[in-house]
TrEMBL record:
This is Tn5501-like resolvase. The keyword DNA-binding applies. InterPro entries: Homeodomain-like_sf, Resolv_N, Resolvase-like_N_sf, SSR_resolvase. Belongs to the site-specific recombinase resolvase family. It comes from Hamiltonella defensa subsp. Acyrthosiphon pisum (strain 5AT). SMART domains: Resolvase (SM00857). Residues 1-141 form the Resolvase/invertase-type recombinase catalytic domain. Keywords: DNA integration, DNA invertase, DNA recombination, DNA-binding. Transmembrane segments: none annotated. PANTHER family: DNA-INVERTASE FROM LAMBDOID PROPHAGE, SERINE RECOMBINASE PINE-RELATED. Coiled coil: none annotated. GO terms for biological process: DNA integration.
Length: 198
């Protein structure tokens, strides 16, 4: 069975799925098997895409007008590949009309293997850049991570209050800190204190 998916940005009222709908129906898709989304940002939900991915079964073909209709706006090649990989795991083929890409053919399958290798290479480059950036920051004395929530005099006052018998719940209320933050800070302080003693 052929299943169609369409998407347009919701930024403009003038955009419609008519062009995509006509192309998909001309490709042999039953209008009852068309799913669509109107979404404008990477964070917008793609309900239509989710429904299409749930609807397809082994042996079906998910068809789009263009590759960028399947991909979420602003997302990466690796995201597109994750969708196609999930289809492949379900033994569902993928076809893009504009790019004449069809994973049921040897050339289409090969192209997606190339895309997969490129996405893997992209992830490796990102990891390499992040690792190099962290190393450079450490050399300059900067340590990554979130800034400490409780420091200096406030931490000293909390320790004194706890040593004096105040409960952690009371400390959280009086010093306006979250319980999880208090516990993490105290654990970190104890660890660094033990390290200094050694």
């Amino acid at each position: 069975m052929l299943i169609g998916y369409m998407r347009v940005s919701s930024d403009s009222d003038r955009q419609s799925t008519d062009l995509q709908r006509d192309a998909l129906i001309s490709a042999g898709i039953d209008p009852r098997h068309l799913f669509e989304d109107h979404a404008s940002g990477a964070k917008d939900e793609r309900v239509g895409l989710s429904q299409a991915l749930e609807f397809v079964r082994a042996g079906d073909v998910l068809v789009v007008w263009k590759l960028d209709r399947l991909d979420r706006l602003g997302r990466s090649l690796s995201h597109l590949l994750s969708i196609v990989t999930s289809l492949k795991d379900k033994r569902v083929a993928f076809r893009s009309l504009t790019e004449n890409l069809d994973t049921t053919t040897p050339s289409g399958e090969f192209l997606f293997q190339v895309f997969g290798a490129l996405a893997q290479y992209e992830r490796a480059l990102i990891r390499e850049r992040v690792t190099a950036g962290l190393a450079a920051a450490r050399k300059r004395g900067r340590i990554g991570g979130r800034p400490k929530a409780i420091t200096g005099e406030k931490l000293d006052a909390i320790v004194v209050a706890l040593d004096g018998g105040m409960s952690k719940a009371a400390v959280c209320r009086n010093f306006n800190v979250k319980r999880s933050t208090l516990i993490e800070t105290l654990a970190r302080a104890m660890t660094s204190g033990n390290a200094e003693k050694q």
